[in-house]
Amino acid sequence: MGIVFKNVVKQYPNTASPAVDNVSLDIREGEFIVFLGPSGCGKTTLLKMVNKLYDTTSGTIEIDGTDINQVQTEQLRRGIGYVIQQNGLFPHMTIEANIAVVPRLLKWDEAKIDKRIDELLEMVHLDPKVFRKRRPSQLSGGQQQRVGIARAMAAGPKILLMDEPFGAIDAITRTSLQDELHRIQRLLKKTILFVTHDVDEALRLADRIIVMQAGKVVQFATPYEILTNP
Ligand code: ADP
Ligand code: ADP
């Protein structure tokens, strides 16, 4: 169970060296994994292969023992929430409509969706009475990112992919969002793959940190191990 990368390579056309270079990893169900490394080391590419936004050049990725290439893309993505730095909320839609996108695609009944929206907003500490009917532009960056997390979790995915989700947020808000995400992850036992170039953020959040350099994994260890054996 969990997510297993086996000799995963990604080589973009017309490039000298692979962006992801023979990565093998064994990630346990419910782990909070942080990919850490400088810009350009392949973190985003690795993440985007998990929900098949990109194909692998070679190697395999298995989720709960099944090769993701054996799973239909739509089906795969239903089980995977995705949060990026630009929260990607639809600007013309209210917060409640943004959160409801995936449940509506899945044809949940509206009463269930309505209840779910309140639950999710409360989970990320936004008062539903205040926020449901607003549009993204009427929220701060930090509040928008909370909605982004709520939306990614709407249909109850087992896995969350998060690509520098707090990168554009001021330091104080970032700390509170990190704490909240940590609490939510412990509570809901999601497997989280989180990308950052911020060492403090990695140490704060991760069960285990995957340090990357030029497409390769150079360290895979707990924050404690990394602090005591840098
Ligand atoms: P990171 O997320 O660690 O910043 P990326 O995965 O975005 O790294 O990029 C890894 C490498 O792959 C970089 O050298 C980048 O320039 C290259 N790269 C990323 N996306 C593409 C693309 N679509 N086409 C060609 N090269 C790309
Ligand atoms: P970018 O080009 O910035 O990397 P993407 O093309 O990855 O953006 O994603 C575009 C939008 O689609 C984003 O708002 C993202 O949240 C959403 N999205 C992409 N893949 C998924 C997924 N697997 N599940 C849910 N939302 C997704």
SSE order in H/E notation? EEEHEEHEHHHHEHEHEEH
Share in β-strands: 15-25%
Q: Which class do the helix and strand fractions yield?
A: alpha/beta
What's the pLDDT, averaged over the residues? 94
Number of beta-strand segments = 10
In spatial order, strands of the major sheet run 6-7-8-3-9-10
Question: Can you give the helix content as a percent range?
Answer: 25-40%
| Biggest pleated sheet | 6 strands, mixed
Number of distinct helices: 9
What's the Cα radius of gyration? Answer: 18 Å
EC number: 7.6.2.9
Family: Belongs to the ABC transporter superfamily.
Catalytic activity: a quaternary ammonium(out) + ATP + H2O = a quaternary ammonium(in) + ADP + phosphate + H(+)
Enzyme class: translocase
Task: Give a summary of the structure in a few sentences.
This protein is an alpha/beta fold.
Describe this structure in words.
- This protein is an alpha/beta fold.
- It has nine helices and ten strands.
- Strands 6-7-8-3-9-10 form a six-stranded mixed β-sheet, with helices on both faces.
- The two termini are 30 Å apart.
- The relative contact order is 0.19.
- The mean pLDDT is 94.
- One adenosine-5'-diphosphate binds next to helix 1.
